[in-house]
Amino acid sequence: MTPYAEQTTAADTFSGGNLENQVAGLLAAHQVQPGPDTQEPRISTEAVPQTPNAVKSAGTLLQTSAPVPDCVRGGINGSGDILAAKKGIYDGKDAYLVVLPDAGDSARVTAYVIDAACIGREPVSPGTVLWKQSFTRS
Question: What element of type H or E holds 16?
Fold first, then answer.
């Protein structure tokens, strides 16, 4: 057992029915709402820590994408802004839960669990999709 696996909790583990709840929780924690004069998502500075991918303006934080390793993004073809992401364990493997807007329906999101084994590997290759499902936005 790896030291990381020993430190995980039930909240860090992605499993069947738990995944839908975790997707909802991630979206609630990263509440995205349109700005007053724009279609771009704006997130309050209290909801998300500042990241290099963010621009601060007028008391809001514009988050273009949740930070995930390039190989994990490659596993979902790197398309679209990531709404939320979380590292955890899926079926005994280090993985990332990544949530994107659904390409065909703005009332839905698509969640992926991507194997994190790709991180640090040379040559760089896309992470393997371990699970994928679409959910209605809450």
Answer: helix 16-29
Name which of 25, 7, 13 is nearest 93 in CA terms.
13
Nearest partner of 26 among 48, 50, 4, 53, judged by Cα: 48
Q: In the numeric block, which tokens belong to residue 105?
A: 């329906």
Q: Over the stretch 36-84, which tens digit does the pLDDT of each residue have?
A: 444 444 443 333 334 444 444 344 444 456 789 999 999 998 667 899 9
> Residue 39 and residue 97: Cα distance in Å, rounded?
26
Residue 11 carries which side chain, given as an amino acid letter? A
Report CA-CA distances (Å) from 24 to 19, 35, 107. Answer: 9, 22, 13
Distance from C-alpha of 34 to C-alpha of 116, rounded to nearest angstrom: 31
pTM of the complete model: 0.68
Residue-wise pLDDT for 101-128, tens only, equals 998 899 999 999 999 999 999 888 999 9
What is the distance between the alpha carbons of residues 30 and 36, in angstroms, rounded to a whole number?
Answer: 18
